[in-house]
Amino acid sequence: xxxxxxxxGRNLEQRAKIKAASDMTGLLSVLPTKARLVVNxxxxxxxxxxxxxCSSLSVGDQIVxxxxxxxxxxxxxxxxxSFNINNNCLI
Length: 91
Description:
This protein is an alpha+beta fold. It has one helix and five strands.
């Protein structure tokens, strides 16, 4: 009886590991490749916007997320967002 519970536990753990791995693969497939970087701008003025690869972003860069964009363009997990007059999200 005890052996049956141990085997059941191992089976459930293996299933959970496989599901987590497939979920991570799914999340990695929706990562954005480009972001809109604000050059020579601040919170009140956007300056000029340039599309750059997400891999070239660093801490402290300001990016713009346009309203209605279904693909994400945020490449970090800690975000401060302020809205300007045009309802663009300046991060």
